[in-house]
Amino acid sequence: MSSAMFDEKDRQQVQAHGLTRDEVDKQIRIFEKGAPYADLDRPCTVGDGIRRIEPEEAKACAADYEKEGAGRFLTKFVPASGAATRMFKALLKISGDYQRIERDVIAKKAAEEGEEYEEVLEFIDNIDKFAFYERLSEAMASDGHDMEALRNTGDFTLIVSYVLDSRGLRYASRPKGQILFHRYPDGARTAFEEHLVEAAEYAADARGNSYLHFTVSPEHESGFTDLLEKKGPSYEKDRNVRFHARFSHQRPSTDTIAVEMDNRPFRDEEGKLLFRPGGHGALLGNLNELDGDIVFIKNIDNVVPDSFKPETIFWKKVLAGYLLRIERDIQKHRSRIRSGDTDKKALGDALQFIEKQLGVLVPEEIQTASPEKTGRYLMERLDRPLRVCGMVPTSGEAGGGPFWVKSPDGSVSIQIVESAQIDPESPLQQEILKQLTHFNPVDIVCSLRNEDGEPYDLSRFVDTSAVFISRKSKDGRELKALEHPGLWNGAMAYWNTVFVEVPLITFNPVKTVNDLLRDTHQG
Q: Where are the domains of the chain?
């Protein structure tokens, strides 16, 4: 397959996305060849790739960060472009299948078939427990509808419509960050607002400046800026900080072409090529442009109400304090080698450090190499962006986990690997997957500058082969989609990496709207 087969309109569409014909050709060849799977050696476990920090050391790490962190340039980076469509998937399906949504009918179907009917039943039976309940009631009342009266009749048709559609909350088309998550005496907060409050506690400098960066969809940016202007000042006053929030978009040039199941370019009903967002790995460019120093990365939906924040904030400080310790050790080893100290002890200490602390198995050729060659290897291996990643005990959530992974050159290192990167046809690889004890909650603290204060070019540390191919659908037709190396997977494959166990309480994602009924979101 070649883009030479594309006509002039196709080429104009490719160009409009900021892509080139060569790039599209390369993407199609990946579909034809198939994305390579990760070669798992074993799962990371506590004591073998994952560090468990005992209580006294955790307190010391948090104290280190409180002492030193305020003097650094701190930024919180939040991927926030995801739509809330998945949160309301069951409601959308039922409202599409039924002209009327009556509780008795849904309860009967839930008992017979389960699945989305059970989800919808749980939603309508607990609707008054959601933080958006009051806003929903007000929206309906403004149009002359009494929500309580409708609830008493068991007819939820109009209520669900006002949750999803434009005449009400429009939650089916809003991003997750703009959904009201938590209820407080003085009003409800969106997920976006919770990130502001949280950042004030651990990502503010000595002058009270708190820098945040949200990656958002262009069509939703105004909604976020409105929230910031309306709600930000009160949070600043209460917490004695000043927020500096920036927004950026995933570039169209990071989109990828979709193909049919036989790898022919997918065309819509008008005959146009279909391009899809290239996954969260496409956000590496946004992260790179921060020119960041210490950067906290966390997903938009992983927030909790104030009553549960203290432990979450404490562990953010623990991870950041541990990062500062590792950063100092890296600088110490590089300084010794740069000064010409390449005796056996200095090199041995540095080699032991990258194996014990950074999860890198040193190649045999380096272990027996000359001091000069070993010194060059160490200087290069230590001169990389650094990340400390929190890992929670496995809780059955789908997604990535920590593994020891073999590279084509025979080296082995610790990596975050998604289930889609693991060969489903390999009994050995699937057995290793079953042994996984921890899960990646996207709780990452990064150091993005070298010892001279210069920002790294993050594009230099990407495993470009670690792409994903997934099956999606469009207008009822199956297609194959290509995603760039994930932001915390292949995009950070060649960073210096540390995995630290964090408690499960720090991981509270909202994948469906009913997750907001969990204790950790009810407060």
A: 14-27+39-75+271-522, 89-164
